[in-house]
Amino acid sequence: MKTEFLQADDANIEKCAEYLRRGDIVAFPTETVYGLGASALDPKAAEKIFRAKGRPATNPLIIHVADKAQIETVAVVDDRSRKLIDALMPGPLTLVMPKKEVVPSIVTAGFDTVAVRMPDHPVALALISAAGVPVCAPSANTSSRPSPTMAQHVYDDLCGKIPVILDGGRCPLGLESTIISMTENPPRVMRAGSVDVSAIEAVIGPVNKESVMIDSLSSLKKPTHFVPKADLVFSAYYDGMFDEIADYCDRMARSHGRRPVIFCTDGNAGRYGDRPVMKMGATVSEYAQSLFEKIREAEKENYDLIIAEGVPLGGLGMTLMSRLMKLSNGNVI
Ligand code: AMP
Ligand code: MG
Question: Residue 25 burial (CB < 10 Å; 0-12/13-18/19+)?
């Protein structure tokens, strides 16, 4: 299959909407990462997603909608969910709610719940709206690869396996959505993501966030966790972290013949002498935003070991650390 690479202008968005309407799959940008979309009401189309990604059928897809009213066509929305929808959508928040009959079971991997979000990205919204159907979409990477934050990443993974990539530039957030299960009491954070949990709690009160780190670890047992080509290890955040990272880097290079690179925030780059570093930005949110992109860059530069600085757990820090946990297979130095 030839993979078309299209700039996201009006004509090409309409062309891709037509692909979706006729049961084909389309890679498209959102504010989090690139998605690989299909009509959420068409089981044959959804199946193409699983095939192209090599995604296990047990891993459900998130349904993307173009407006808030469309959420009610696929999910049963209670008052608490409605408050979150009003306050935080469009945005990088996914709600898991009871599903409606129209949603085929392949999309929800047989669950009686459905995950829904409204992306805050003009191209994604225009595409879904033009398609006229809700669009189920996981990240547009090969399963077990880091999520794609640029159209080129999608091409690198899925060239020849999908008909079209809609190029809308770099994804502004670069990390996936926060997923919260609304069918539990209190609601439970299933995946830390780009929406800070405190923003959710400000709307509906306390939520259960205790399982976030544990779930990151337990997901390692599933075949769906990320496997970068380079090995990744990360540090917990503490005072002695810099020396420990530097020592580890030297040991791996000298005694194990590795080509390590240190991922660090800009302000810490000077702490590692002449060891190779990649600067991840000035803040935790810039670090989070560039993580997946920099992993792919490090692999291209033939580093075979990424040593990532840890960050404090507040706010997006928890999201970033849970991703590092998955990427590293739990390998903390
Ligand atoms: P992604 O791989 O980024 O598309 O995210 C999909 C994730 O959303 C899955 O791995 C689940 O953790 C979660 N999810 C999607 N649908 C459901 C559902 N019906 N019930 C529970 N979790 C879901
Ligand atoms: Mg994914």
Answer: buried
Task: Provide, rounded to the nearest whole percent, the portion of the chain with pLDDT above 70.
Answer: 95
CA dist 52 and 258 (Å) reads 33
Closest Cα to atom 4 of ligand 1: 138
Residue 220: pLDDT over 60: no
Do residues 57 and 106 lie in contact, with contact meaning Cβ atoms separated by under 8 Å? yes
Give the span between the Cα atoms of 145 and 277, in whole angstroms. Answer: 22
Ligand 1 center to residue 274 CA distance, Å? Answer: 42
Tens of pLDDT, residue by residue over 141-186, are 998 889 999 999 999 999 999 999 999 999 999 999 999 999 999 9
Q: Helices in 116-210 by DSSP H: which ranges?
A: 122-131, 151-158, 197-204
Position 222 scores a pLDDT of 53
Mean pLDDT confidence for 235-264: 95
Nearby residues of 11 by Cβ (< 8 Å), 6 or more positions away: none
Q: Output Rg (C-alpha) for the chain, integer angstroms.
A: 20
Contact in structure between 34 and 121 (CB atoms under 8 Å): no
Cβ 189 under 6 angstroms from ligand 1 = no
